[in-house]
Amino acid sequence: NIADPILEVSELHVAYGKVEALHGAGLQVGAGQIVTVIGPNGAGKSTMLNAIAGALPNNGSLRGTVRLRGQDIGSVAIEARVARGMCLVPETRELFASMSVEDNLLLGSYRRYQARERGYADQMPLVYDLFPRLRERRRQPAGTLSGGERQMLALGRALMAKPQLLLLDEPSLGLAPLIVREIFHIIVRLKQTGVAILLVEQNARAALQAADYAYVLETGDVVLEGPAAQLANDPKVIDTYLGLV
Ligand code: ATP
Q1: How many angstroms does the Cα of residue 222 sit away from the middle of ligand 1?
Q2: What's this model's pTM, rounded to 2 decimal places?
Q3: If 0-12 CB within 10 Å is exposed, 13-18 middle and 19+ buried, where does residue 239 land?
Q4: Can you list the positions of beta strands (E) in the chain?
Q5: Distance in angstroms (rounded) separating the CA atoms of residues 150 and 147
Q6: Where are any strands of DSSP class E within 31-171?
Q7: pLDDT tens digits for 142-182?
Q8: What percent of the chain has pLDDT above 90?
Q9: H or E element that contains 40
Q10: How far does residue 15's CA lie from ligand 1's centre (Å)?
Q11: 66: β partners
Q12: Is ligand 1 within 6 A of the CB of residue 16?
């Protein structure tokens, strides 16, 4: 449905041992778009994101195709996917607690440093511009940050890799409503810098507000998709995902 998608996923089957968690799900992300996957606990949202990023756990096996800018990356290692412009921010954030905020950010540019890229840390001003709070706390150990600041740091670290596509797993998880609003504002600003974003969320209301296009995943299948504004007005979506907040 998109003329020139940056990401195309089709017929994705992922099994953990004998149990299949995704039954042929697919999606597309257009360049510079925010696309969201919403759905209940256990629907397979994280599985989908990890499969796309090349970060499935050892007991996970995959069938299907994942194309980044038209190229099949199904057998490409996770580091090489990062080199090709895709970067995952996992639900667990994976920060280094005893290291400073700034050193955590620098780790995000480590691949570029290793590749002897000139200006490997050139995203730092943008990150500090998006997250002034991180600049203020740049010498503080990451482990002393609040939940919202940790999510900002995880996002900032991913940006240091200068990705064209960000994969965000539940960025609002465990955050207070005000902080969730702030994080979603930043996600929309990130899109304005030209990054495409695939966003997995249980907070359907916030996700549909920020996104251009949305998929509803239930027990391993895409059951509904459409422009986010349209899904936000769909009676079934309202009933199941937007009714109670
Ligand atoms: P949540 O929002 O709760 O994280 P989700 O939609 O992201 O849910 P997944 O975490 O992708 O869902 O899980 C999909 C299914 O796969 C669940 O039934 C889960 O128990 C199972 N599963 C996930 N990871 C593993 C694993 N490493 N080994 C075995 N089963 C797994």
Answers
A1: 15
A2: 0.92
A3: exposed
A4: 5-16, 19-30, 34-38, 60-68, 71-72, 86-89, 165-169, 196-201, 213-218, 221-227
A5: 5
A6: 34-38, 60-68, 71-72, 86-89, 165-169
A7: 999 998 899 999 999 999 999 999 999 999 988 889 999 99
A8: 69
A9: none
A10: 10
A11: 9
A12: yes
